[in-house]
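writing this on my phone so excuse typos. first protein, seq and then structure
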Amino acid sequence: MSTTLERPALDTPRKVAPAKDSGTLLRSQVRTGWALLTPALLHSSIFIVIPVVAVLVLSLTDYSFGDTWSWVGFGNYSELFRDVDFQASLWHTVLYAIVVIPISMAISLAVAIGLNQKMKGLGFFRTAFYIPTVTATVAVATIWLWIYNPGSGLANGFLSLFGFAPNRWLADPATALPSLMVVGIWQGLGTKVIIYLAALQGVSRDLLESAELDGANRWQKFANVTWPAIGPVQFFVLITSIVGTFQVFDLVYVMTQGGPGSETRVLVMDIYQNAFQDLKLGYASAETVIMMLVIAAFISVGRLIQRADAND
C-alpha cells in the first residue's frame, strides 16, 4: 500500500495596510482635539466672552433698560471716581480681600495638615469642615446673625464669661466689616481644606523619607519638600479666593445690607443697586469693568509672588 505525503500549504502573505504618514496622523489628532474642545469653547463664548464684550460696550453708554440710549464714551468712568459710594465700596472690597484671603489660606493649610495625619474620627472632622461650604449662604448668614445678636447672641455670651462688655458687632461701624470677614473666612475654609488635603496627599513620600533620613525635622521637611510641591495648588487657591472675595454679595446683603451707614457696602452690592434698583446699567457696567481690572491686578501680584517663591 502506497502512502502519499501531502505537502503543507504555504501561508499566503497577509496584506499590510500602509502606515499613515506623520502629517496625516497629526491632522487627524488636531481635528479630534478641536471636536472635543468645541463644547467647552461654545460654553466659554456664550457665557464668558460675549458677556464680557457686552459689558465693555455698555460701560461706554448711558443704557438704562430703555428704548433709547446714547454713547457717552468714558463719561461713566470719570463719574465713578467722583462717586463717594463707589469709592467706599471699592475700598471695603479690597480691604475684605486683603484680610480674608491670606488668613483663610493659612488656616485652611494648617487644618489640612492636621487632617492629613492618622487620627480617630478623621472622616467626621473632614465632613465638619466642609459642611459650611455646601450650606446655603442665607442659612449661614442667619446663623451668624444669631451669634452676633447684641442681646442673646453666642458671641457676647462667650465674652461675658471673661468679663467683657457686650458688643453691637454688626451695628457698630468699627466692628461690622471685621465681623463679616470672620464669617467669610469660616465659610470658605471647606473648599480650601479639601484642595490642600488632596495636594498634601500627592507629595512624594520618597522625598519626605529621604529628608527625614538626612536629619530634617518637621518644619524643614515642610519648608523644603512639602511647600515647593504644593506651589501650583497654592496659586490655584489664591486665584479662586481672589475671584470669590471680590464677588461677595449675598452674605453682606443678608447680614448688614451695606450698613451701618455704608461701612460694609461692597462693590457687587453697589453694582446691584445701580443696575437693578436705579436702572443705570451703563454705569453699573463701568463698575464691573473696574472690578475686573482690580481682580486682574490682584492676580498679577499673586503670579509675581508665586514666581518669586518658585525661584527661591
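second protein below, same order as before
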Amino acid sequence: MTEAATRRAPGTPCWVSLIVHGLHTTQNFYAELFGWEFGPGPEQLGPYVRALIDGKEVAGIGQLPPDRHLPIAWTTYLATDDADLTAEAIRACGGTVGVGPLDAGKAGRMAIASDPAGAVFGIWQAAAHLGTTLAGSPGTPVWNELVTRETSTVAKFYQAVFGYETEAVVSADFDYQTLHLDGHPVASLHGVGHALPRDRGPHWMTYFEVDDTDEAAQRVVELGGHILQPPREGSGGRVATVADPEGAAFTIVRSAGR
C-alpha cells in the first residue's frame, strides 16, 4: 500500500470515474466487491460520490440524469497542467472534446474527450483534488489500458497530445505498446483488431487490484455482475475482465509479486 497524493506529471492516469443510472445500487455493488466506503464529491454534473479505502480517495461514481442514455463505462482521467490547452491539442490532433473544459468546484478543472478512434477519456487539471490518493492495495486502480483496433495510428495521437514515449512489443501477432513518461511505464495500448467488442468499440480499461482474482470474479457474479473473460494468467498477474450490473467493464488483477 502506498500513498499517491502527489500532483502527477501531465499524461499520467490520475483518476477513474463511472457515471451510472442507479447510484446507490452501484455503490452497494462496489462496496461489497472492493470494500469501498463513500464520501461526497463535487456535484456540478449531478450527484457524485468519491470511493474511499481507509479514508483515501480511489475512484468516483456519479449519476446520469434520468433522460440521458449513455454507455455505462469507467473513464480514465489523464493529468494535465492546463485543461484548456490540452483540449485544444486534442482537437488539433484529430480528437474530440465532448464535455468542457469546466470547473469541478474547487477540486479542479476537467474535460471529457475521445481519441480519433473513438475511445473516451478524461483530462484532469488538479486543484484541491489531486486524484487517486492510494495505490497498490486491493480495491485501488493499478493500471489503465486502451483497447483499440490497432495501436500505430492512435499512439501518434497520444504522443502528440501528452508527450509519451512508446515501447512496442515486436511480434507479428501481438499489437501492444507501453506508454512511458520520464522513463516510467504509465499505461498501455492494446490493438485487438476484429476481436474488439462490437457493443463497446475502442475503450480505456481500468485494472483494479484484488487479493484473489478467481474469488473476486465469482463475487462479481454473486453481486449481479457478469464475467466477460474468465480468470487467466497475464503478463502482470492473474486477471479477469468483468462487468458490473449496469454493464461497466473493468479488469480485476492480482498483480504478480503480491
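DSSP finds four helices and 18 strands in the chain. thats all i got for now
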